[in-house]
Structure formats: structure tokens, C-alpha cells
């Protein structure tokens, strides 16, 4: 077992508490004599055990003491009796004091446990978000690979126009399913409040544009192929920059790319 694995295995804690077999104890003692990290970890565990022992009976704060008294109804009026000092009375007082200390200890322990549970729940949520993001990325990569390898896809190159000559894009149009995917990775990031709008164009007898989808850069999705609405009978494709939500007709002054099928 590697020394890092040994430290993370929990066997060092069992070693400190004397719960390992003689053979395992001898092995760890030998490793500790040769490895500084293992030795330091054992010293750290021993210090933690000593600290835990010294704090086993924590003191009660005034606030916690008052809460416990209220729970036990210790502030209610009682019938005054003539004091009679005897051994049983002292025992009763001592038992009450021990009981209060025990309640305070359990209360503090409960609060610590609740804090640990909250921490674990937060870690679980973070892990789930990370896993979800990785699954989404993996799906995007797989989709892109499938589209690029599909022989039924027609690739239409869209060239940059006057407003942005260096821009470009590609359309992958499937001639069997009519599905359309856009490679918008060579377009500049749209400004705040603006989106790219993809148009399927019929050129004759008159120019007829049909919106087939919007593209923003949420979650950097412009890095990957983006699926938009399917289309039939397209003779060209164009992409314009439009206000968020899109436009009913293309703003020709904001035509970024255009290409014929």
C-alpha cells in the first residue's frame, strides 16, 4: 500500500487506538520510522485524540444554560420548605448539575452535527452540478462527432458579410431528416441583449426568409454544434444579429454571414 493510500485508508487512526493486529501494527510502525509524512500524520492523530479528550465536558454558555432551564421548567415557583441539609439533598443537587451539563453537551454536539450535515449536503450539491456539467459536455461532444461523420449531411459554408468580413459559420443540413446544426464558433460573441438569428432562405421567385432558431453564448455553447429547427427546401442560409428574443424579419444591416446551398 502506498504511503498516501495508507494515510487516506483510516488504518492510521486504528493504529493510534491500538485496534490493529500485531502484524499490521508492526508494519505501520516500520513505515512511520521511514516516512516523514506517515509519522507526522500519526502525531497529528494523537494530538487530535488528546484535544478531544480534554474537551469532552465543555462548559455551558449562559444562553444555553437559560434555554435548558426553560425546557426543564426550573424557573417556576415552588413551595418553600424548611431547608434540611443531609446527604440525599446534596446527591440530588449534584445529579441535577450533572444532568444540566449533560444536556448542554448533547445540545452542543447536536449543533455541531447539524453543521456537518449542512456541509455534506453542500458538497453533494456541488458534486451533482459538476457531474451534470460533465455529462452535458460529453453529450455535446458526442452530438458534434455524430453530425460531422453523417454522410447525409450537406455542409453549407456561410461567408462573412460587410458588417463583419472575418466572420464565418457552417450549416450541417441533413437531406433525410431535415435536421439543421450550426457551427457558430467563428462568430464573435454577441453583445449583451443581442442574439444571433438563423434564417432559412428561398431565393426565387422572391427572397423568403424563415427563422429557424436563435443562438446566444450561454454556457459557452457557441463552442459546439447547435441544433436549430429543421427546414425543407432551403436554397441559402443566413445569420443576422438581432435583439434578444429575435425578430420577425432579418435586419439586413446586421447580416453577419450568408451562403448558398
UniProtKB/TrEMBL annotation:
Gene Ontology annotations of biological process type: regulation of translation
GO CC list: plasma membrane
Top-level taxon of the source organism: Bacteria
Domain Anti-sigma K factor RskA C-terminal: 94-251
Molecular function GO terms recorded: sigma factor antagonist activity
Cited InterPro entries: Anti-sigma-K/W_factor, RskA_C
Protein name according to UniProt: Anti-sigma-K factor rskA
Taxonomic source organism: Flavobacterium terrigena
